[in-house]
Amino acid sequence: SLTDAPVILTILQNWVPRVSHYFDKEHYTYVGHQIVIQESIEYFGAVVWPGALALSQYLESNQEQFNLKDKKVLEIGAGTGLVSIVACILGAYVTATDLPEVLENLSYNISRNTENMNTHKPEVRKLVWGESLNEDFPVSTYHYDFVLATDVVYHHTALEPLLATMVYFCKPGTVLLWANKFRFSTDYEFLEKLGNIFNTTILAEFPESNVKLLKATIREN
Question: Which domains, ranges and CATH numbers included, belong to the chain?
Fold first, then answer.
């Protein structure tokens, strides 16, 4: 139901900005760990967007409600890997996915930030929304407790494949947590389409950043 009032939150300024022309390294602290994220200005996916900060903060603050320990977690459109790193710190078996051109930076950030941790080793994999899902992630083998997505909806042409990908991975029992900055009518249209297929609840809103955080579960017929 969209009737439960969402929590109103502010994205906490818990990072130290560093400036350089090409690679920006952003320093964050979540769940007691210093996380250093290398960004690249060449790709959309290689910058930390506000939805990633919102979901990271929410997962850190709501560990009882969403206990990721030993859970199988898939992040789609993982970008710089911040959310996957936080999920890993929280004890999840994480698979971080994105487009081929983003994987090098994604792998670098994830391995660098998790190598000395006593956690499950995260996996980084290519995933093009809507393509080769059955071949690369056969249903018989892959079942996820959580699917995480942040700022995956913006002006791009892959919204239909994105929705199909969410539906593909969200089996009964899977929880989709999606945080997004809402800027355009297309963002709200996507939310409406999601609501036609999933049971959706807005868990939190970050008004200063125009970010909404939603929980969605597939409707069981």
Answer: 7-218 (3.40.50.150)
